[in-house]
Amino acid sequence: MGVKRPWNIVNMPIYSLATYSKDSVNMNVCTYVNAVSMKPKLFMVAIDYTTKTYEQLEDSDYAVLQILHDDHQSLIKLLGKSSGHKVDKEQKLRDQDLLTEWHGYSVLDGACGYLLLKKQNRMNIGGDHELFYFHVEKSSTKSESGVLMFQKLIDEGVIL
Q1: Which of 92, 93, 108, 113 gives a 20 to 30 Å CA spacing to 84?
Q2: What are the residue boundaries of the structural domains of the chain, listed by start?
Q3: Which top CATH class is 6-155?
Q4: Model confidence pLDDT, tens digit, residues 111-144
Q5: Residue 3: its H or E element
């Protein structure tokens, strides 16, 4: 394999952002995620303009950021490489009994952690993603081990 581009050198957790519309949930894969403030606790998530996630954030102030576990690696194709406009991700996850409830929100069962986010602000940065800033309303760590990492997806040929 050749030399990586600078933005692919880092090894960061893989997240899924669950967004909600009426009684349905959609989930994606996020790697452009970062804590940007301690007090108050704020997170920044970059969202592709063409996604159902972006569309649902237009209509909802809340989302759940999920820290994926190694066991979720098999979901990367569904969550990150298929469009919620074309695939009913919620139904596919329900069919596999992979959803659970957390504070009244449908989330992936077995995630390492969950953060209930309230949309605070957003910024059009002129690229293919928009930056959304969220206040962390609630959070829960389920496991500090087994976090699915960016490098593992590269090593196993899932991405890049």
Answers
A1: 113
A2: 6-155
A3: mainly beta
A4: 999 999 999 999 998 899 999 999 999 999 999 9
A5: none
Tokens found for residue 23:
């009684």
Structure tokens at 42: 């704020």
**Phi-psi label, residue 146: left if phi above 0, alpha if psi -120 to 50, beta otherwise:** left
Q: pTM (2 decimals)?
A: 0.94
The contacts of residue 100 (CB under 8 Å, 6+ apart) are 106, 107, 108, 109
Contacts of 14 (CB under 8 A, 6+ apart): 29, 30, 31, 68, 72, 76, 148, 149, 150, 153
Q: Which two tokens stand for residue 55?
A: 């569309």
Q: Helix, strand, or coil here: 146?
A: coil
Instruction: Round to the nearest angstrom and report the end-to-end CA distance of the chain.
Output: 10
Rounded to an integer, what is the distance from CA 8 to the centroid of its chain?
18
Token readout for 37 is 């403030």
Burial label for 154, CB within 10 Å (0-12, 13-18, 19+), is middle
* Length of the chain measured in residues: 160
